[in-house]
Task: structure prediction
Amino acid sequence: MRNSGFRRLAWLVASAGVLAGAGTLAGCVHPGASGLADLPPWLPSHLARVNADERNPSVIAVWEWPYQGRTVYEIQAGCCDRFNELYDAQGTYLCAPSGGFTGRGDGKCPDAAAAREAAGEQVRKRWFHMAPPHPADRAGSAPDLP
Result:
């Protein structure tokens, strides 16, 4: 793989920025969101930990919405039968309202999907993962082959 040393260095620099609450995560905040400073303190470090591999993210989006009288954060899984986890503002896991093999979550909060739908415009995208460009995305070039 060409430039692997540079890529490792770039990943380390980006990771340091993520852990500091800036850098990569700051570039991934939804344009309508107010930024990382407005997120619960546990969330940026959680995202940095689960998304350590930028090319295969475990989390692709974070949604904020009201549920049972409190603000919750739904962590949307990146792919393939993973649960979409729901946390309260303190970072306590509540349940997985959707995702998984059946798409219906873990069954611990069967009313959450309906509550999210009823919340309508109160549901806000607070963060999303911006994947680095793939070599095949370069205009006029074929992907690098091993």
Summary: The first helix runs from residue 4 to 19. The two ends are 7 Å apart (CA to CA).
